[in-house]
Amino acid sequence: MSCEVCQLKELDVEHFEIREVLRCILHTILFHRALGLVRPKDIDLELFEITYVQCGDVELERKIDEKIDQFIDRVEKHPNKKNQICLSFYEVKNKQPTWFTNKVERLYWEQWYINLNVAQHQKGHSGKSTSSKIVVDPGAEERTVRRAALEASLRDVLFQIIKFVNEKKDHIPPIPNLEGVSFPYEITISSSSDSAFGMEMFKRMLQTGQPTMLS
Q1: Which residue from 25, 92, 57 is spatially nearest to 180, judged by alpha carbons?
Q2: How many whole angstroms separate alpha carbon 30 and alpha carbon 110?
Q3: Count of CB atoms within 10 A of residue 201's CB?
Q4: Cα(160)–Cα(156) distance, rounded to whole angstroms?
Q5: pLDDT in tens, 16-58
């Protein structure tokens, strides 16, 4: 069984933008892989002129927020590193237990890699102004340009997701007899400083028989 991999465009974000960006991307993917038991809910982003759709499932929202909290925690512990979230969909297969394997095996059929490059915090200047004139923040225009660029890139990622789900359909397994709004999934986090970054790829090669792309 082959595993389809989608490596999403890398996004340059500020720390305070992480939560909104990840919510938007993760919920968009999960909505497109929903099983039809959903109550679609439009969400307007506060930082960007973008609206996305959630499945309207409280448990799914809780799991995503939990993973985003873990991601933010990792970013704070590993500054200056590229960080990545992998959303994997899998089938559950029962197999004969042996001394080194579990009864249940996860067969991954689709993986989404979300790549974020988080900008470092810069300390503000403490220089005193000798003039009483209004001082224009020289970084304001730069921030506006950067925010517009990120919004355009985030739109690109959303289009990339839609294009992928429309084109890649043959690998989707039969709908499982499980409760929940989505196919079984897991969310894993790694940063380029981690051995887990490489180990994750090696593990997936063993499980899927195919190499995974990592930038």
Answers
A1: 57
A2: 12
A3: 15
A4: 6
A5: 999 999 999 999 999 998 887 778 899 999 999 999 999 988 8
